[in-house]
Amino acid sequence: MNLIKKFSRMLDSIPHDQAFTQLIIDQIITYYEKCCGWYKALMTRISPNHPGGIALKTSAAFAESQDIREVGRKLWECSASEKQSLINREIELLISATNETSLKGYDMVADPKIVGSLSLLYNSMNWLSSNLSKLRHITPHQTDSSHIQSRQVAPTRRWTLEAAMRPKRGDVERPLRLPMTKESVVGFDGAITSIQNLAFTAIFTLHLDIRCGSIYMISRALKGKNDGQPQEPNRNSSTENNWSYILTVEPTSASPIVLELNNDLISFGARMSNYLGPNECRYITSCLSRLIDRALVSSTRFIGAMNSYGALRLQLDVLVLQQNLKNIIVVSPAPVSSKSSLSLDKDVAASMPEVVALPQSAKFLDWFLEGPGKTLRNAKEERDMFKEMGSQVLTEGNGEPFTFDELRVLIELCYSAALKGPQGPEAREEFMAAKRGLDDSLLRLSEVMWDA
């Protein structure tokens, strides 16, 4: 940047020649292309299934997805009143995308150096674009020595430094600027826009990676011991996977994978805070708890069978995650309102400090422990309340109502210990009673959802 400033000062002190200005712009574009290539090198992995044998890691690929990137950009620039709807949209897109494309461990940015490099890239590109914007200056002169016609009409003047011929005005220096024509400034502005886009891509990749990593670890935890990874054939392997949440004793600690996720989040947060400012950290972690909450409920479909002790283990997981997220998420400062009334306007209410909680996951497990009958009654009451009061019900802190598919998974899990557990069809009476109960509960669920 110092070199560009020195050249800009020199070009602003001699008769204008657009060819020299264009040379500076070309060098800026070349530097941007090198930084862009460096980013792709950081976020590329080996993939035999893709052309050329390489592919972008999931977070980088999502950062280039038009729908996800559009929402992420709006989140970066939006006001507080628009944030909630954008967060919901982003969560919906990420859950849908990760359901279609299964995440793998090698898709995550696990190397601390890469997190530092992406943060450095963001800071560098952000600083560079800010400094380049200050050099923007349009001059009325049109001389361009790179074109024959311009050379023919160019005045034959010596390159005497004009600054040396002007009288000094105290200690006030002349503003630093890069002289450009109306035509060449288009390329200059385009280069700055590209640099700003690369800066956003770097910060958005970090924003997505912590979310993709959380979804991946949660799905690992709920899929069971083998995590769906390739292994040697074993006729009992699938059954053992279904029994991961069939426990014989009350659990006393959270799942190892959830503890691993906690350590990953703490490590990520520490590295992030070392390199980035509060606003950037807030953008990366804001509403992460809501995504994890949705991911937990969505991933319950991977549980083959679960009993009450298994649900207690998941409750411990939820509590551990919730407490850890409170230490990681950078919340917005509380708004200061000068109004004397107790009511707040929409902007102030929307900018209230973020509540870090996992209400849907906690509700899902509470309803499971209460049984299928109470679950159906709770679902009907909740839908009736939402029908009457709308989004005001959310202030009670119980989260959004469950969808039909989520309630169906919950009902099936209530009977899963008898239908898919260790006894299974061997305990014929219990098995048949559970099967009849499941069919009846699913029928009642359809009626509840239809009435709602």
What's the topology here?
Layout: H1 2-11, H2 18-42, E1 44-46, E2 54-56, H3 58-64, H4 66-77, H5 80-100, H6 112-133, E3 136-138, H7 148-153, H8 162-165, E4 178-180, H9 184-223, H10 237-242, H11 256-275, H12 278-285, H13 288-299, H14 308-328, H15 346-350, H16 359-370, H17 372-389, H18 404-414, H19 416-420, H20 428-451
Parallel strand pairs: 3-4
Antiparallel strand pairs: 1-2
Helix pairs in contact: 2-9, 3-9, 4-5, 6-9, 6-11, 9-11, 9-12, 9-13, 11-14, 13-16, 14-16, 16-18, 17-20, 18-20
Organism: Trichophyton soudanense CBS 452.61
Keywords: Exocytosis, Protein transport, Transport
Family: Belongs to the SEC8 family.
